[in-house]
Amino acid sequence: MPKVSDDRLAARRREILDGARHCFAEYGYDGATVKRIEESTGLSRGAIFHHYRDKEALFLALAREDAERMADVAAEQGLVQVMRDMLTRPQDFDWLGTRLEIARKLRTDNSFRAEWVSYSAEVEQATLSRLERGRQAGRLRDDVPTDVLLNYLDLVLDGLITRLATGQPTDDLHAVLDLVEESVRAHE
């Protein structure tokens, strides 16, 4: 039996993740049945679950990928820039619906919560590091602890995600993000 190359395996996993992301975003976690995931990916149950132990493992792989992508942007450009990118290019953020499902599962599923906490720590650490560098460079206010600034930005991010994922208007949100950015900056 011929061995499948690592590149081909990676391409298959990418194909599965892309199709599953669309399915979870459209139907939610519970509505993304195995049959719908098969239809969305164009692959059989066996092909999908050869790479992922079950639906939850597939969902967690998506969540981790999204957390890593967000951590990269947050570390390089800041969390407010992540939010600006969401407004400017919402089509690049097809994980917004998935993010709402993550929030729901965090509230209702203890085992999922335990796994997600380790994944989300990466985003939190990248953002905290950037905030600390900004503070040390004199760009961010120093009268509020860094972890409070992070929680503030996380709350704004969650609100933005909810607004985008539920299809609410976003016309005035660039001005809101200007206000958020101004509120964390140091004033001389």
What are the SSEs and their pairings?
Elements: H1 6-31, H2 34-41, H3 45-51, H4 55-77, H5 79-88, H6 96-108, H7 110-136, H8 146-165, H9 173-184
Helix pairs in contact: 1-2, 1-4, 1-6, 4-5, 4-7, 5-8, 5-9, 6-7, 6-8, 7-8
Helix-strand pattern: HHHHHHHHH
Q: Please indicate the percent range of residues in DSSP E strands (runs of 2 or more).
A: under 5%
Overall form: elongated
Architecture of the largest domain in CATH? Orthogonal Bundle
Q: Could you tell me the radius of gyration in angstroms? A: 19 Å
What can be said about the biggest beta sheet? none
Distance N terminus to C terminus? 70 Å
Number of discrete domains: 2
Q: Give me the CATH fold name of the largest domain.
A: Tetracycline Repressor, domain 2
Number of helices: 9
Q: Compute the average pLDDT.
A: 85
The CATH superfamily of the largest domain is identified as: Tetracycline Repressor, domain 2
Can you count the beta strands? Answer: 0
Flag low-confidence runs: none
Helix content: over 70%
- Indicate the CATH class of the largest domain: Mainly Alpha
Secondary-structure content class: mainly alpha
Task: Kindly list the characteristics that best describe this protein.
2 domains; Tetracycline Repressor, domain 2; 188 residues; Arc Repressor Mutant, subunit A; mainly alpha; elongated
